[in-house]
Amino acid sequence: xxLSKLSGVYIHYGQNDKIMRISSQAFGEYLKKKQKSRHLxxxxxxxxxxxxxxxxxxxxxxxxxxxxAHLFEIDLTAxxxxxxxxx
Length: 87
Fold this sequence. Notes:
The protein is α+β, with helices and mostly antiparallel strands. 23% of the residues lie in helices and 24% in strands.
C-alpha cells in the first residue's frame, strides 16, 4: 500500500450499515468534474429520502483523521439502485 500518497479521507462507506459519508466539499468537486449541478443532485437525493447533511469527522482513529466538517450521509439501503458512476 502506498499510504504516503494519501492526502486525506473524503469518503467513508459503512459495510455493515450501508451508509456512505462523504465530504460535502469533495462531493461538490466530484460533481463539478462530472459537469453536474450540485444543487440538483443534492435536492434529488433529498427527495428520495436517502441524503442528509450532518456534521462529523472522516478518518477518525487513523493517521488521516480530518477535522469536523459538513458531510453528506447517504443511506444506500434506501436506494440500492443508486449508481454514483452515472452521477
